[in-house]
């Protein structure tokens, strides 16, 4: 249950303040000094006259905060005209000023929390505290306010934290950005990205990242680290994809016509070139590990097969380099690329 920490009018520790009086001039986004302060030289409506000029910061604290409060307004979400809601995180040092309509529209969960506060008196500012850290809370608000800069993701752990928060508070606007980040991660760490997609129920990302995992030998990967807590059903799907693609890709290679791979060398005797025989022989193991076209159509792999064949046949290299053979290789590569590549 959300807790109504206070409203500006009813809090036991906040003196009555008309929020409108706090809005002029609007605070600079680059500073938190105007967090809940009256404009320079003005007093809040409820402020008692002071016998002498106190430093402005002191008066602000006196007017709007409990004595000794270390609360500051978030520089990214300062108070402003129309902002009638304050969100606080678990490590409460910052206050995030927002408008309840935008927040309610973006998050059904926050809407429920705010509604639970009961009838709102006109002109009051409500304060809602959430369990998230200020860093997560700020990121959530950046998703909620589409015109603000999206949060910078500095680690995979942070990405997961944000996904958890987006799911918990049902902030749909966050999933586009976070999903894109998961796909970015898949370029470098495909298994980890797949695991994250599974853990957070990102169906489309699960599908797309599964394709990236084809580059990885899942049997030799440290699965306990990468995908340790992924449900077995999702790992089973992934293994099925790898196995099925490996056998289909191998079929493409083994059943390919060999007319273009005919070598006139003495060893090959106008039969199938030894270098292609080598490719077929090695493809089984290679494709089982990483069932992608890059595994067997990359120049290094092919050159290695040609070198091995060259020890037996002096003509194999020229067949490999021939236009017809190269064209056939390109056709076969396309055929492997066209195979189903996602769960
Ligand atoms: Zn040959």
Automatic annotation (TrEMBL):
It comes from Botryobasidium botryosum (strain FD-172 SS1). Residues 61-70 have a biased composition (Basic residues). CDD domains: BTB_POZ_ZBTB_KLHL-like. Pfam families: BTB. This is BTB domain-containing protein. SUPFAM superfamilies: POZ domain. Residues 83-145 form the BTB domain. Residues 44-60 have a biased composition (Basic and acidic residues). Residues 1-77 are annotated as: Disordered. InterPro entries: BTB/POZ_dom, SKP1/BTB/POZ_sf.
